[in-house]
Description:
CATH topology of the largest domain: Aldehyde Dehydrogenase, Chain A, domain 1
CATH superfamily of the largest domain: Aldehyde Dehydrogenase, Chain A, domain 1
Strand order of the largest sheet: 16-17-18-15-14-19-20
CATH architecture of the largest domain: 3-Layer(aba) Sandwich
Strand content: 15-25%
CATH class of the largest domain: Alpha Beta
Bound molecules: nicotinamide-adenine-dinucleotide
Number of strands: 22
Amino acid sequence: MTATYTHTFDTPVYKGTVSVNTGLFINGKFVEPVLKQSIETVNPVTGEVIAKVSAGTSEDVDIAVAAAKKAFKSSWGLKVPGHQRGRMLGKLADLIEEHKDELAALESLDTGKLFLHTSKFEVPTAVQVSRYFAGWADKNYGQTIETDESKFAYTRHEPIGVVAAIAPWNYPLLTSFIKVVTALATGNTVVVKPSEVTPLSILKVAEYFNAAGFPPGVVNIVNGYGQTVGQALADHRDIGKLTFTGSTLVGRKIMESAAKTNLKRVTLELGGKSPTLVFDDADLQRAVTGTVLNIFHNSGQMCTAGSRIYVQEGIYDRFVEAFAAAARGIKVGNGFDGNCDQGPLVSEIQMKRVLGYVESGKAEGAKVLTGGSRQGDKGFFVPPTIFVNTTPDMKIVREEIFGPVCMIIKFKTEEEAIEHANDTEYGLSCQVFSQDISRALRVAHALEAGQALINGIGGGVGVPFGGIKQSGFGKELGQHALEAFTTVKAVHVNL
Ligand code: NAD
């Protein structure tokens, strides 16, 4: 028998009782792991344990992959037409929408995120993503290609087979769910490994797969540590594709494993150190609002976080003053209180990591304008922290911090700003603020990144997302994501 965790919320923004099964989800059922191990999840607001969640090992991965392989051959893959897969994804979206506040509350409890953000953005985006890929399920077809009069050829977009999806903790529901629905829409079966730090929301979603009509084995969830469950997935010979979101360090290991085992296809959504460029002709208010959101949202725990803010000399003083005032105005606290703008970091490890970077910035001679130390002694709170007087070689300027920490750097010319902005091993995102449309586009094109945001932040599940350089490769969301989950077969017909 697997355990169920129940939590009663009695907060200003949400009241209700939510239960979630904490077992592994394999072949349509919640089961105990072979070795009966568990991992504790921790509430980032208090530092107290929330629940013990089953932790799998390579034995459980073997069982889950075998279930997914069998389901692919017997009851999924090419056996189920796209329109039926789309209908199930639509039903899944409806079920999530019906339970949206429960799911949002659980996600906020596990991550420390503001309930406002999980209930108004993250869970609704999951619903939208499921509906979006439901629409693609019967439209991902090939082409007819003329060769000569005695022949014709056509292509088919075929599913790959068993897909492994490994997710991080910063957007636990969205990062795993986007991978799952794209895999299902394109006819693959899936084994998901959530982050061991935040497994609760995807386990809650597991309850809806059977009700939405997905046959047993089509979706499987194996929680556990990266070195055991994650590594076993990366090494598995029956997995045809692995889609990963996480750090560049682990992404590299996954690629190595894929190369050494069965050359499984890999897509990697990795880290970032994204630049923001604010030009003299920018709308100051817009630039401040967009830049604040792009670095401090989700406590800065975003792969796209715009942590390097380059500001042209003519607007620099006014920008720094307005940006620092906005950062000081951010109220940091419990995301269930209803009066906060920023929650804690996800874990003690992450808080210590971020504070370690802050100390390194101070030690290397950068000046802290606001923030710069832990808030309180309970929970994992770090307030918005701004550095000035940095140099390009400082650790805080070069490495991903993954917290509410940024630096403001003065520049003179467009060329100089582009050169500094591109001086990074990463290439995930960039932001440009200018009211001169020609300049904004010219700079957006010159910056080395998978996405460019002009005069604000991004959005839209139909827009492809993914990095270049050491931020990874392969796109999620949008039509381009379908390519990453299918193979193209060419069929030649002799008339
Ligand atoms: P992480 O790389 O430590 O872990 C990510 C996942 O990989 C977890 O589920 C973990 O258990 C697993 N893992 C760890 N070791 C593994 C191994 N040897 N083999 C297989 N799996 C293993 O990352 P994190 O700390 O959870 O998340 C933060 C990182 O994720 C940041 O670098 C951030 O930039 C990145 N991220 C990128 C995107 C994107 O879309 N580009 C989105 C969110 C987060």
